[in-house]
């Protein structure tokens, strides 16, 4: 197949796929009772603008598709303008979706959207918006829409978009296959043939300062070949390049398995301070050309977290160059701190230094560690922290200390956080002298930033004092015991004296 033919085929496929719009409905806004349409239920239409994927996914059923389930190459596109208009009359007949006649009127057009035309029908403006303008890549939300039929079309797009998605019709609410249930939050996935790029972060298995997190820059190339493909990743002060795992480049084609390139044969990564530039070699461009039109290139680089900014947001930015197009992409990872106050049981102001703690990512691991402490066994499973944390020499243990006017506490800095709060558990592995370690783990909640804001970010852990040994008491059984012992000693002395005198009388020669 010639390059021209491939380009034409891709463009036609984009138009056809765009016409379907892959409209969906979110389950969260379902109305289970009553079964009639509820005009007071809030309604919305969310458009997820994506590039044409390498391989088409399944037809949308209306629900929101998790980002991880989107086809390879379906990347968000910002800057695309959509206009929604409500269809109020068709052929002079009012469209009223609160009546069965209204649904019967629009049914032929829902079954065959291509048969609908704007000519001869009445359409009322319902809203205009731009994808990505609200901060979510490729997303545009129309909310507070009427109960009705809407005609949605793409009215403007940036220069990197080479085709337009076809207009589509959508009802609010939409019937579902579940009897008596309508959906009120509708999601649509129109596609474009476009050159675009996006950056994502994988910090799923990262918990503590020093852990490795990976960043992936994905570029979509609708038409092959290209003569320039570069990624320039600038690491912020809170990140350091990690040589392991090594950087990777993967090409995902419209057909066939992904191809992982080899360094330095197919690509190179060149450092310059905190800037890392990935470039394809001639062999790498050959692999990209073989992938054909609509290929996706993924560049992944690993870093470690070295410090936490005051707001807890680590932002990693990059530039992607695809021939004459240039894209600025970024992704973020959230980190924070927590504080543990150690005090005597019953008095939170009686702070204690010398208590040792370890941090655990799961409650199960924390409970296992608490059992090890109780049994006197070595503690396992605690998170390990990198340089820059307040952990001790083993990189796991935090010790409460006296620190001027404030004392008996430790700040655990460098824990992965989330806006809603991420839970961890601390286990007291050693109590201060004269106290008993807490038997159960203590839950803490970590929010982004170093300000210790949010309920649960400061934990108070009490210690019970050890029991003192029993001493004799005055009077009672104690005095009786002393009296008896004294009487025995006195009686013994009398007997010894009497026995001695008697012995002298009986044997004076020995004196």
What does this 3D model show about the protein?
This protein is of the alpha+beta class. The chain is 16% helix and 39% strand. It contains 5 helices and 34 strands. It has helices at residues 3-20, 100-111, 282-291, 363-375, 476-506, and strands spanning 24-25, 30-31, 44-48, 50-51, 81-90, 93-94, 121-130, 139-143, 148-156, 168-172, 174-175, 182-183, 185-188, 191-192, 196-202, 212-221, 229-234, 239-241, 248-252, 259-260, 267-272, 275-280, 295-305, 313-322, 325-344, 347-351, 356-360, 398-399, 401-403, 406-416, 422-430, 435-436, 442-446, 458-465. The strands form 7 sheets. Strands 17, 21, 22, 24, 25, 26, 29, 30, 32 and 34 form a 10-stranded mixed sheet that branches. Strands 15, 16, 18, 19, 20 and 23 form a 6-stranded antiparallel sheet that branches. Strands 5, 6, 7, 9 and 10 form a 5-stranded antiparallel sheet that branches. The longest helix is centred in the C-terminal third of the chain and has 31 residues, at 476-506. The chain starts with a helix and ends in a 5-residue tail after the last helix.
List the helices and strands and how they pair.
Blueprint: H1 3-20, E1 24-25, E2 30-31, E3 44-48, E4 50-51, E5 81-90, E6 93-94, H2 100-111, E7 121-130, E8 139-143, E9 148-156, E10 168-172, E11 174-175, E12 182-183, E13 185-188, E14 191-192, E15 196-202, E16 212-221, E17 229-234, E18 239-241, E19 248-252, E20 259-260, E21 267-272, E22 275-280, H3 282-291, E23 295-305, E24 313-322, E25 325-344, E26 347-351, E27 356-360, H4 363-375, E28 398-399, E29 401-403, E30 406-416, E31 422-430, E32 435-436, E33 442-446, E34 458-465, H5 476-506
Domain Gram-positive pilin subunit D1 N-terminal: 44-192
Transmembrane segments: 473-497
Protein name: Isopeptide-forming domain-containing fimbrial protein
